[in-house]
Sequence to fold (388 residues):
Amino acid sequence: MYRVLRDTHLLLGLFLFVFVMMFGVSSLEFSHRSWFGSEPTDSTSTVVVDPGRTSTPRELARHLMEEQGYGGGLHDIRAAEGQILFNISRIGTVHDVRYTRGAREAQVRTRVFPFMSMMTWMHGTFGMHHEYAPHNVWGALMFLTSVGLLVLGGTGLYLWFKLRAERRIGLILLFGNLVFGATLIVLLWVG
Amino acid sequence: MTKWMIRIHMYTGLLNFTALVLFGVVGIIATVLPPHAQRARPTPIVSFVDFESPGGMDDRQLADHIQATLRIPLTGPAPDWSLERDDENNLRFRLPTPARRHEIVVLEEEGRLRMETLTFPTWQHLFHLHEMVPSRSTPDLRIQAWAWYIELSLWSLILMALSGLYLWLESRPGYRWAQVSFGVGSLIFVGFYWFVR
Fold:
């Protein structure tokens, strides 16, 4: 039993190492935004479009994805004064598209975010309901990482408890933490 | 050195056990929840409170004055992004807590405040708790205590991962399955990053 759980803890921990580091480092970016640069590189361009493929934002987006190689999900669709506005975005990159109905070209503003913003974006990309298929793959990985954190916690507890010399101080830390944490969770719920 | 690394790895895990479980649970919840637009919205409770505006205040000062007057537990000054004037030129702002959201509308001409209180579902409460850090929290002592605990847990998570890596390299670097596990996990991450980049 001990060897199985020790190896589970080791192998799972190593498999998830980069993912757990991503969670930790991106949380620091969230907590200490001023420490990190988060300004994207910003560029604008005019791209040629086929007016026959612009009847709906989705059709135009698909056209741009095929012709310009834009990857991502279609978001934030708006229509105003004969114009269609939307963005095609994926983790780290946003293409803001502005198209005037009937025109043969569209204006595209592309923002590419730096590494730390990518980490934060990856941290927040959960679930498997995204338009952009790779985001669903990522969502599945985030789910595995979350389950993995619980398994690492459980196996870690077992491995600690097997070290008799560490039980006393460990129990103090664990129960102190549980009492502190659970009390605050309840206090913050009841207000 | 190794003995201390084991202790660091172990103690940080024990000291942050609640937060680690919370992080895992929130991740699972975030996966199984339906998309934002399809989630059921809790029904808010609306109430009115008499209020005489002292006058001579800008929107920020008025919102702070109301927040101090109402003394709703766990709330702090309204976030800047929530301050706005509606179509009738009434000041609106939010006083969020981890478990509730209080939306205030200042009806100056009627001499009262409209308060809409929305109690979040448990999962959302947990979600708010997991993202609560000192730089984004209110001055309330309970909030501050929790926020600093989460801050400590963030650093502990990084320390746990790094000390775990060290312990592997120090004790069983030649263990083939460990090399494969680390390599495959890292490759998947780097591959995904490269793909979306």
In short: Chain B touches chain A through 73 residues (CB under 8 Å). The longest helix of chain B spans residues 141-171. Chain B has six helices and five strands. The longest strand of chain B covers residues 100-107.
